[in-house]
Design a protein that fits this description.
Elements (H helix, E strand, L loop, with lengths): L17 H15 L30 E6 L5 E3 L2 E3 L1 H13 L15 E6 L5 H27 L11 H9 L4 E3 L5
Parallel strand pairs: 1-4, 4-5
Antiparallel strand pairs: 1-2, 2-3
Length: 180
Amino acid sequence: MLLKKRKRESAEINGSSMADIAFLLLIFFLVTTTINVDTGIGLVLPPPLEDDVEPPPIKERNLMNILVNQEGRIVMDEEFYQLGEVKARLIEFIKNPTQDPNLAETPDLAIVSIRTQRETPYRIYVDMLDEVMGAYKDLRDEASRANYGVPYGALTEDSPQQEQVKDMYPKKISIAEPNE
């Protein structure tokens, strides 16, 4: 007796609903994904002065003028600097450890004024702002470590310690209108 072998049917997975599942997953990820919106440079501006109020007088000694020209070169108080040298120069200007009469009298009187020209590359301008902010961050970190033994970022938000460090090194940055 000879037995005939039956042909086995190959096992197949029904793929008709795969397209529906893929479509539903696509919609799910589109709905649940957040898209970061570029908000620009976040700076807190002081309130505008009243029309009848004169701006406070500023000694030239306490003002660090920074110009970023159309070639992206940085001029600080009539001297050219590389981008990497800006932070160290600003820290020296703000702290004035040697009581140099050409540098700021005290850190709370120091003002950094940044001016650009219309053709200044945006990337250089942003890098310049990063250097200025980095100088203040380094100064605040140093003060926080000296007084409290922790970096400034480790202090509790709006704590008396954080406020004291902010008062020691307040960010006084002036963004001047570009030159024509």
